[in-house]
């Protein structure tokens, strides 16, 4: 019986490691919601189920196209989803992506904004490709 319980626990840990990751916040782009040093629990994947208002972790813009996202990298950003495919491109981002008024976010792209108005986000880099999203923040870890 003890081996069965141990086996179930090991399996549960392995599944959790595949589905969840802890990321430490760096920078002030998400203040007041998150502060430098905060740790957040991220549910991996699920880019196809994203909704406006969710906070996501994604690979930084300078890495797009160079390599697939990987754990252990120090180039992860955390921002709030401002628009998903099929929604109207926010006015604050439209000029950056050459979108006329009323344009829609294209397929497999996101608009992300930091909570801090001084954030570098889609207003600076444009759309975020879906395949660069690590996952959705589901919980702030206790300090």
UniProtKB/TrEMBL annotation:
<dbReference type="InterPro" id="IPR000223">
    <property type="entry name" value="Pept_S26A_signal_pept_1"/>
</dbReference>
<dbReference type="GO" id="GO:0006465">
    <property type="term" value="P:signal peptide processing"/>
</dbReference>
<feature type="active site">
    <location>
        <position position="79"/>
    </location>
</feature>
<feature type="domain" description="Peptidase S26">
    <location>
        <begin position="5"/>
        <end position="89"/>
    </location>
</feature>
<protein>
    <recommendedName>
        <fullName>Peptidase S26 domain-containing protein</fullName>
    </recommendedName>
</protein>
<dbReference type="Pfam" id="PF10502">
    <property type="entry name" value="Peptidase_S26"/>
</dbReference>
<comment type="similarity">
    <text>Belongs to the peptidase S26 family.</text>
</comment>
<dbReference type="InterPro" id="IPR036286">
    <property type="entry name" value="LexA/Signal_pep-like_sf"/>
</dbReference>
<dbReference type="InterPro" id="IPR019533">
    <property type="entry name" value="Peptidase_S26"/>
</dbReference>
<dbReference type="GO" id="GO:0004252">
    <property type="term" value="F:serine-type endopeptidase activity"/>
</dbReference>
<dbReference type="GO" id="GO:0005886">
    <property type="term" value="C:plasma membrane"/>
</dbReference>
<feature type="domain" description="Peptidase S26">
    <location>
        <begin position="104"/>
        <end position="138"/>
    </location>
</feature>
<feature type="active site">
    <location>
        <position position="29"/>
    </location>
</feature>
């Amino acid at each position: 019986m003890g081996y069965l319980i141990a086996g179930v626990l090991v399996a549960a840990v392995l599944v959790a490691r595949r589905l969840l990751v802890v990321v430490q916040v760096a920078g002030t782009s998400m203040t007041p919601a998150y502060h430098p040093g905060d740790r957040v629990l991220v549910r991996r994947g699920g880019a196809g189920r994203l909704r406006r208002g969710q906070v996501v972790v994604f690979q930084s813009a300078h890495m797009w196209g160079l390599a697939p996202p990987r754990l252990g990298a120090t180039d992860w950003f955390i921002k709030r989803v401002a628009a998903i495919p099929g929604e109207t491109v926010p006015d604050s981002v439209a000029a950056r992506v050459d979108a006329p008024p009323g344009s829609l976010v294209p397929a497999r792209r996101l608009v992300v904004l930091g909570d801090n108005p001084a954030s570098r986000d889609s207003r600076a880099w444009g759309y975020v490709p879906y395949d660069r999203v690590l996952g959705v923040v589901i919980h702030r870890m206790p300090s």
